Structures are given as structure tokens and as C-alpha cells.
Amino acid sequence: MPEERQYRRRPQHEPQVVSEFGKLQPQDLQIEEAVLGALMLEKDAYSVVSDILKPESFYDNANQKIYSAIVSLGAKQRPIDMLTVTEQLRNDGTLEEAGGPLRISELTGRVSSAANVEFHARIVAQKYIARELIRFSSMVQQKAFDESIDVYDLMQEAEGGLFEISKNTLKRDVIQIDPIISEALKKIQEASNSESGLSGLPTGFHDLDKKTSGWQNSDLVIIAARPAMGKTAFVLSMAKNMAVDYSTPVAMFSLEMSNLQLVNRLISNVCELESEKIKSGQLSQPEWDNLMARTKRLYSAPLYVDDTPSLSVFELRTKARRLVREHGVKIIIIDYLQLMNASGMKFGSREQEVSTISRSLKGLAKELDIPIIALSQLNRSVETRDDKHGKRPQLSDLRESGAIEQDADIVCFIHRPEYYTKSSEDAEGKDIRGLAEFIIAKHRSGSVGDVKMRFRGQFARFENWDESYNLTGDTDNIIQSKMNTQPSDDPGAAGAPFPPPPSNVDFLTSGPDDKPLPF
């Protein structure tokens, strides 16, 4: 007769691991055992705690093995009780590590009811999070003492690690629908009382606002295009409309351009001065007057610009929270997504990293309850495609990751037919000079379609299509304003010397009364 395996009965109180701080790790073995006993006592208990606990949530190794067996049974939709758990542990080869059949039976005998299992499970989960934070902070502390490690790399790694802990442990509870209905009705009432009739943030582009009802809170909006289509010009025009015309606080993270380059483009946009003139300072006197007059609109505008290169998604989270808390920012613009990184985390490919970034941006939009606009590149398939639609972009053209399309609430493309046809007319004979098509290809809570806009490349500016416009057959002569037409006897006219700049032209660094600009 084969000899029966002898199981060693686990002592009630085993020595606990002491942390480097001279204290016991956060744990409560009695609560852990109460949870395990309740799970084997009540058939519906596992469904209550399955979203709260995982095997590593338990401090005691034997308890981890038991809960792993319970998870296996739950995944197979099999009954969970003392006998089935014992059998599962035996099949897993971990019954002896768990303390044997006697300990399993003792666990069920220590609880009389599973009524408090959820409350007890949350205590176990909180102890686990505390242990994870202690482990993580200890790792950061040790590396901080190592002078061979770059401190900025360590900060990136620390942000990534903390993000992983929060992502894997913090979950929102479900709520009953009544308060959500009340909030939805409140939003509808606010929209009906609004003069614009929009429930979201107006962009200043009327036809676009009609399609979207304004950018909606918690939405991730992807605006994609090939180079030279005007992605940055569009968001800059939109940011100017929102910050200056509607006094909406806007934050713009420019990973490609410096703050000064961005502000120069903004000045060109607002003052209708060509960027070459802005760079060279070769302005006529009326142009100087126009420059000084129109830039006054930018002073004190709630527009905040950050030009940190290679911004990580974790740095963005920190800065975005501060901007919302301290400056009441209502929308965040990122130029552009592919220049971001997720430092501190390991990925098998760049596509996985971009997927993590887009997922994080969507999570940040929900957390802050504001829209996030992220620019994105398209792959080269647009250039090689030769179709009757004139190389119009499509969702499959999004570069580096299909997750961008999946995570985004709205995906838009900017397409300028004139750029590809090299003609002033399309196949139907319609004038397409300055035409920009804003294509809404995906809209999770609304309709898709095209919005016509006017693009004025020399001013890096997008406008409403229905605005007064005068074509003279040459895009260089589009809407010639008074500041761009000089009598021959004026300073700055052809052949005449340009006047010196006004003595108070320090608008790039300070505003009236020497107040610093918000950007």
C-alpha cells in the first residue's frame, strides 16, 4: 500500500519579513485568511472580489497559492469550495506549499459568513499597494545613490514605474445610472442656453463646430496629415481662436518647434505678415504699426506653451495636471504624438510604445475631463496611392500604430487637393485655390464627413471657408490688406529703405507694463 504523503501543518504565526526601514511590511494575515475562507464558503463571493484581488495581492506565499487555485477554478467557471480548491492545488503541484488539506479546511472554519468579503478584500488590496510603493520607493532610493545613473533617466524610470503601479491597482467603482442621467440633462440644458448651441468648446471654425458640437470633454482627438498639409498651422489657428476670441485657456505642447518659432508663426497668423518678414524684420512702417497694434490682442491671452523636446507621457501627465489645477486649462494640444515617448517602460517595438502613449492620452483626457488634441503623422502610402480622390488620406494611413485609431474618439485628416494636383482647378473645374478639406473619418459620438476651410499658407493660417475672399489668380495676391500694399513714396516700398523697428518692440518677451507673456 503506497505511503500517504504527510503534510506539515503550518504554524499560526510565522516570522514576518522586516523591511529595510525596521518595520514590518504592511499585511494582515487574519484578513487574508478570512477572505480565502469566505471564497470557499459562498459560491458568489469570487465574482465580488475578482476585480479587486490578484494572487500577488496576498502577503503570505501559501495564501497566494490558494488564491491562484481559486482564480483557476473561476476562469473555468467551476464551483469553488474546500474540496475543489484542494483538488486544484493538487493538480497544480502546490498543495504542500499551501499547507495541505487540513489548512484548507481550517480556513473555511474560521468564517461564518461571506457578508463582509468585499470590505476585507479591499483591505488586502490596500496593503498590497502599500507594499508595492515601499518596494518601488526603495528601488528609486538605491538608484539615486548610484552616481553612474543619470538622474533625469531615473526620473523618467520612476514616473513610468509609478504609472504602472497606479494603472494595475487603481480601479473605479461602478455607479448607478441616476446621477449620470442628471449630469447629461444638465449638459443638454447648458447647450440649449448657450448662444452658440454647442455642448463643447468652440474652435472658431463654424462648420467644424456644427459637426462636433465643439470639442467634448474627455475626448481624444487625433488630427493627422502628411507633411506640408498644415497640421501645426491648423492647431495654432484654432488655439488663437479659442484663447483670444473665446478666452478659453489653452495649453500647447510643441515637441517639434521652439516657443519662439511657435510665437513667430502665431504673430504671422494674427498680423497677416509673411513669416519671412517676421524672421528678417524687414517691415515697412505701416507693417510695423500693424504688428504692434495686432499683437496687443495676444497679451494676457490664456495660452500656455511648453517646448520640452522628446516629452514623455509621464511628464505630460504631471504638467497637464498642474496646468488644469493652477491655470484652469480647458484643452490640451500636442504637436505631435510620434515625437513623444514612454521612457521608464520596456517595449518590444515602437508600435507598442505608440500604443501605450495613445492609450495614456485617452486616460489622461478622461482623468482631467478635458479634450486632448494630438497631431499625428501619416505613413507614405498616401504619396504612392494614385486614385481618383486625389490622394485623400484614410484611417489605415495612420503611422506606427492601429491603436491610435482604436483609442481616439475622433480621427480627422487635413487634405489640400491643390498641393497634389498642382492646379487651380479640380477634375470638375471647381476652383480649389486655398481649399483645405478637414476630413472627419471617425466620430465615436457623431457623424463623419468633410468640412471645407480656407488655408493661407503665407500666414500659416486656417479660416472659415465662407469668409470674404478675393482671388486674383495668384495665391501671393490673396486678400491683400492695406499693410501689404505701399505707395511708391512710402518707406519700405520697392527700392526704398526699410524703417527701423519702433523703440518699444519687445513683444516677444514682455507685455504692457513689462508683464511676461503667458507663453
What is the secondary structure topology, with strand pairs?
Layout: H1 29-41, H2 45-49, H3 61-75, H4 82-92, H5 100-109, H6 117-145, H7 151-169, H8 178-193, H9 206-212, E1 220-225, H10 231-245, E2 250-254, H11 259-271, H12 275-280, H13 285-295, E3 303-306, H14 313-327, E4 331-335, H15 350-368, E5 372-377, H16 381-384, H17 403-407, E6 410-415, H18 417-421, E7 435-443, E8 449-456, E9 461-464
Parallel strand pairs: 1-5, 1-6, 2-3, 2-4, 4-5
Antiparallel strand pairs: 6-7, 7-8, 8-9
Helix pairs in contact: 1-3, 1-5, 1-6, 3-4, 6-7, 10-11, 14-15
Morphology: elongated
Tally of structural domains? 2
The helix content is 40-55%
Oligomer: single chain
The named CATH superfamily of the largest domain = P-loop containing nucleotide triphosphate hydrolases
Task: Determine the mean pLDDT.
Answer: 76
Low-confidence stretches: 471-497, 505-519
CATH topology of the largest domain: Rossmann fold
Question: Would you list the SSEs in sequence order as H and E?
Answer: HHHHHHHHHEHEHHHEHEHEHHEHEEE
Based on DSSP secondary structure assignment, what is the total number of beta strands?
Answer: 9
How would you write the strand order of the largest sheet?
A: 3-2-4-5-1-6-7-8-9
Question: In the CATH hierarchy, what is the class of the largest domain?
Answer: Alpha Beta
CATH architecture grouping of the largest domain: 3-Layer(aba) Sandwich
Largest sheet: 9 strands, mixed
First-last Cα distance? 85 Å
Radius of gyration: 31 Å
Number of helices: 18
- Proportion of strand residues: 5-15%
What structural class do helix, strand and pairing data support? alpha/beta
